[in-house]
Automatic annotation (TrEMBL), chain A:
The lineage of its organism: Eukaryota, Viridiplantae, Streptophyta, Embryophyta, Tracheophyta. It comes from Lupinus angustifolius (Narrow-leaved blue lupine). One of its GO terms (biological process) is ubiquitin-dependent protein catabolic process. SMART domains: Skp1. InterPro entries: SKP1, SKP1-like, SKP1-like_dim_sf, SKP1/BTB/POZ_sf, Skp1_comp_dimer, Skp1_comp_POZ. This is SKP1-like protein. Keywords: Ubl conjugation pathway. Pathway: Protein modification; protein ubiquitination. It comes from the Eukaryota.
TrEMBL record, chain B:
Pfam families: F-box, LRR_At5g56370. Residues 9-57 form the F-box domain. It comes from the Eukaryota. Signal peptide: none annotated. PROSITE patterns: FBOX. This is F-box domain-containing protein. InterPro entries: F-box-like_dom_sf, F-box_dom, LRR_dom_sf, LRR_FXL15/At3g58940/PEG3-like. PANTHER family: CYCLIN-LIKE F-BOX (PTHR32212), F-BOX_RNI_FBD-LIKE DOMAIN PROTEIN (PTHR32212:SF267).
Length: 159, 328
């Protein structure tokens, strides 16, 4: 995962899957729990490769970690609402994977919450498409499954 | 980037169960159970969710909601403990389903339990002992609401035995009196740091509630004059830093000498044109909190004090104390 680069300051170099290198402070990098152990063993010349993270996603993650207010829950809520406001479903999917892979403090739950709110009132087809789920039920099996869980479909309009 | 985006769908469908269960954490139980029809992988996934949020507003018919709750509890994977359970219900509820939920939660190592319901009672409801003695509980919110039919009570035990509880929020409940006549319900909760008492009552003869918690830092009390007997609140809480008092002044505080760390006091008196607040209690608060560093008085609190001052028919001037910071 780690390779050598030219020595510079004590910033950490992160290389995304599309080949971009980002330099971040140890304080920022340490909030990505997956790479924490690599930071301890690395010197300034180390480049840490992130196979599941594209440049766009790392940019957003750094934007979140640098911009999140330190105190006042109401300020954090406002910042987080703004952060997710303009994300398209596609961007959300990519971030969900990247954040889950890096285990980013705070963002794991924010992404999960945003996805939950997005899919909560959507049709079964929408949710399948969102998660890339292939329906491996036969029509009879699916009907039976619905029947068994009829409580949860009380008042739901079928699409 | 292109290569990355190309297999996005594949990687989404490979998301570990833990990530999917974390998404379910933020969904109401009804929507969580609906994921069962997505595919064979998802069919039983919801049964392992450690978080359950039951909200009756997701249901057109309240009786269906009751059956849904019982059904979910009987279907889910019994070996998975409960991290967070929330039960919110509009409309009236009997004690039976509440008992069922609390018993299930306590027997599954619940850490956070929220109950917000309108309980209709024919007789007193005693909080199940499994919840009052639950060793895993860290957060407990019991918000009851029922019309002012005080013939019956929602009774708390003489003492909570909750060794890991950090945050307790209670509303419309009645404290039980110990054999020696005292009320000291929280002293065994050694980790308690936040306590919210909203419309809490004492039984007839008792006049004092003792709150003795060495870790308590944040205390909120809300009362309405006339709901039950006025009592005195005696604090033995050396680390208390913030007190918030809301509603109509009713309960006095005993001396504040043993509160060395008290930093902030917020008073928000409710204002009702036809229901004048008890000025004597309000003034007694200002007296006992005299040494606090920051005193915040809501606009209606100042208005209340102003009404009192209007009794001084010949008054020409009022000067403001230097230590006082007024906010609203």
């Amino acid at each position: 995962m780690a390779e050598k680069a030219s020595p510079s300051s004590n910033s950490i170099s992160l290389k995304t899957v599309d080949g971009k290198i980002f330099k971040v402070s140890p304080a920022i990098a340490n909030q990505m729990l997956t790479i924490q152990p690599l930071i301890k063993d690395s010197d300034s010349s180390t480049i840490i490769s992130l196979p599941d993270v594209a440049a766009f996603h790392l940019t957003k993650i750094i934007e979140y970690l640098e911009g999140k207010p330190a105190a006042a829950p109401s300020a954090v809520d406002a910042f987080e609402a703004q952060f997710v406001k303009d994300l398209s479903p596609e961007e959300l999917k990519g971030l969900l994977i990247a954040v889950g892979y890096l285990k980013v403090n705070g963002l794991v739950d924010l992404m999960a919450n945003t996805v939950a709110k997005l899919i909560e009132n959507k049709s079964v087809e929408y949710v399948r498409k969102f998660f890339g789920v292939v329906n491996d039920f036969t029509p009879a099996e699916e009907a039976k499954c619905r029947q068994e869980h009829a409580w949860a479909f009380d008042g739901v309009d079928e699409d | 980037m292109e290569r990355d985006m190309g297999n996005l769908q594949d990687r989404l469908s490979d998301l570990p169960d833990l990530v999917l269960l974390n998404i379910m954490k933020f969904m109401n139980a009804k929507h969580v159970v609906q994921t069962t029809v997505l595919s064979k992988r998802w069919k039983n996934l919801w049964k392992s969710s450690p978080n359950l949020t039951f909200d009756s507003s997701d249901f057109l018919w309240v009786p269906v909601f009751n059956n849904f709750v019982s059904w979910v509890l009987s279907c889910r994977d019994n070996s998975v403990s409960i991290h967070n359970l929330e039960f919110r219900r509009k409309g009236c509820i009997g004690p039976k389903i509440l008992d069922e939920i609390m018993t299930y939660a306590a027997s599954h190592d619940v850490q956070q339990l929220t109950i917000v319901v309108n309980l209709v009672l024919k007789q007193d409801f005693v909080l199940p002992s499994c919840i009052c003695n639950c060793p895993s509980l860290k957060f407990l919110k019991l918000y009851f609401w029922f019309p002012y039919a005080f013939a019956s009570h929602i009774k708390l035990p003489t003492s909570f035995n909750l060794p890991t509880l950090e945050s307790l929020h209670i509303k419309h409940v009645t404290f039980s009196t110990k054999e020696n006549g005292s009320v000291e319900p929280f002293s065994s909760c050694s980790m308690l740091n936040t306590l919210v008492m909203d419309h809490c009552y004492l039984l007839d003869a008792t006049k004092v509630i003792h709150i003795s918690n060495s870790r308590l830092t944040n205390l909120t009390i809300r009362s309405f004059r006339g709901d039950g007997i006025a009592y005195e609140i005696s604090l033995s809480t050396p680390n208390l830093s913030v007190i918030t008092i809301k509603g109509l002044p009713d309960h006095k505080f005993s001396s504040m000498r043993n509160l060395p760390d008290l930093e902030k006091v917020k008073i928000e008196v409710s204002w009702y044109e036809n229901f004048p607040p008890n000025h004597l209690v309000l003034i007694s608060w200002l007296q006992v909190f005299a040494k606090v560093k920051i005193l915040t008085l809501s606009w209606s609190t100042i208005k209340t004090l102003n009404v009192l001052l209007s009794e001084f028919k010949n008054l020409c001037a009022i000067s403001r104390g230097e230590q006082m910071q007024l906010q609203h």
